[in-house]
Specification:
Chain lengths: 112, 112
């Protein structure tokens, strides 16, 4: 099955857009679209699975708990976030849509 | 861990380049770089796992056994190839590097 990450997007995007593209067993592959969105200031993602996230278009800053510096991602950059490493989206490009590919995969059988 | 799909590449690339970026359990995430490469004419990939492949840069044509038309992929296009669906890379951009992100994931617990 063929698809594209660059489908036309609605003019208004009050919330980030999450689309599951494929899923099997412990794996889920999703597209995320952010339009200047960021995580709420007091919010941390704390996920049960590892996450591999590729920034395809746009720009973003990810904060990781315990690290002083925000990780800045440009197109082609990826980040591997191990299960239960708390993180948040500090900012995304305010002018252009930021498009991500995220792969969530099981931690049960051991990490990278 | 942060990385980029756009690392500098060697001037000569006699074979396609495969780099594992992350792996856990039944999942492997890899970067593939093709420089005009294609599968040999009599070769078919026949994989035990599902494959999600995203074309990040460049252009390519994928043949799928039993389908008359080659699937043409441009940046942002993805293809989900179920386990044991035989396929081959018909062609890749002869002038520019084609960069892929491939996710191999288990078919044992059922497909999408």
């Amino acid at each position: 099955m063929k698809g594209t990450l660059f489908t036309p997007l609605p003019p208004d995007l009050p919330e980030e857009l999450f689309d599951t593209l494929a899923a099997a067993g412990d794996v889920r592959i999703e597209r995320i679209v952010s339009r200047g969105h960021a995580s709420p200031g007091d919010f941390w993602y704390d996920l049960d699975r590892h996450e591999f996230v590729l920034l395809v278009r746009g720009r973003a800053g990810i904060a990781i708990e315990g690290r002083a510096e925000t990780v800045v991602l440009a197109p082609g950059d990826y980040l591997i976030i191990e299960a239960h490493v708390r993180h948040r989206v500090e900012w995304t490009d305010p002018k252009n849509d930021t498009i991500w590919l995220a792969v969530h995969y099981s931690a049960e059988t051991g990490g990278e």
